[in-house]
TrEMBL record:
Signal peptide feature range: none
Name this polypeptide is given: Trafficking protein particle complex subunit 6B
Listed GO CC annotations: cis-Golgi network; trans-Golgi network; TRAPP complex
CDD domains: TRAPPC6A_Trs33
Biological-process GO terms, alphabetical: endoplasmic reticulum to Golgi vesicle-mediated transport
Organism this protein belongs to: Cannabis sativa (Hemp)
Domain of life the protein comes from: Eukaryota
Taxonomic lineage from the root: Eukaryota, Viridiplantae, Streptophyta, Embryophyta, Tracheophyta
Length: 175
């Protein structure tokens, strides 16, 4: 039986980490806060990948490693597999989770005051709740990047929010 951590503890830790880095350490530097949170996730991903691959043979190619992340690694973290995996067969993979657990209790408001500007709807800036949600996604992006880095795959990982709690993680392999 492996060690487990209460889901509510992880939720609280993630919320406090985002709040502390965004509002205290780097209140006026959201990019630096995002980078710091992603770096913590990277370290977690390195260590988890080491633990979960201890008894496995090396992966033959990038696709095998990505499939491991989607099935085994994701199952260990979230008790479910990634819902969909897409690739362009040129080093870009999209991992879709239709019910990402760490976003299940979050919501995004259409705009700060509830209105969309009539003259230019595309000029709507991200409201505070969207910024906080995106900040929460830096940690799992770091986890994925750290896990793949440990498997010998240098990459960049970003996240897209589709319709909460659904989100997609875009993995771009560096060559």
């Amino acid at each position: 039986m492996g060690r487990e951590v209460s889901e509510s503890c992880v939720d609280s830790l993630l919320t406090e980490m985002v709040s502390t880095y965004s509002n205290r350490f780097y209140a006026n530097k959201p990019d630096l806060a995002a980078h710091s949170i992603e770096a913590i996730g990277y370290q977690v991903g390195l260590q988890l990948s080491e633990r979960y691959t201890m008894d496995r043979s090396r992966f033959g190619d990038h696709l095998e490693a990505i499939k491991f992340i989607c099935k085994d690694f994701w199952s260990e973290l979230f008790k479910k597999q990634i819902d969909n995996l897409k690739t362009n067969h040129r080093g870009t993979f999209v991992l879709q989770d239709t019910r990402f657990r760490w976003l299940s209790r979050m919501s995004i408001e259409p705009s700060e005051n509830g209105d969309v500007p009539h003259n230019n709807p595309e000029a709507v800036t991200e409201n505070k709740s969207t910024q906080v949600t995106r900040m929460h996604l830096n940690f799992p992006c770091g986890i994925i990047r750290g896990a793949l880095s440990n498997l010998g795959i240098p990459c960049a990982v970003s996240a897209d929010i589709t319709n909460l709690p659904a989100c997609s993680f875009v993995v771009r392999i560096k060559v």
